[in-house]
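Milestone M4 deliverable, item 7.
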Amino acid sequence: MDIQNRITQHFKDSAELKLRVMDELAAPIEEGAQLFFDCIANDGKILVCGNGGSAADAQHFAAELINRFEKERPGLACVALTTDSSVITSISNDYDYNQIFSKQVRALGLPGDSLLAISTSGNSPNVVAAIHAAHERNMRVVALTGRDGGAMLAALHPTDVLICVDAKSTARIQEVHLVSMHCLCDIIDYHLLGE
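Output delivered:
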């Protein structure tokens, strides 16, 4: 296979997965957007966490809400828990890396806030710990995951929302996560601003 064929195969695989899962993800994405809109409309904030590429996704989502997505509007309260290197390194040094998000959720999260927990495998221990911490703080959770949902699925409460991409490739799951986050932003804006 030459390089250009390899590149076009990535595009085809990504497009095919998005088309395959779009119908099954539409309802949970709608439910997640409603959860976030209700949170924001009641003066709550959204906390977001993930590792690696999912950490970048957490920051991307926070930027879209704090600044703007595609329409002009006031900033919306959203905090990526992946950005403060002093907090992250102090928690991981003094306690445990698996607590880097949960300690922040316990410190910053209030009842009525919500958590967007991102993990392509669903098995990131620090993200699962953040879900448990969110529940302790009476926060609802939107879990953005892949494969079979992993340990995150078992950690969710019935009032939480699971957006799970049924695929094995981390890259393909992340690509669907990006579209899903853009849908969340768009629906939040639609609820706030209309067409």
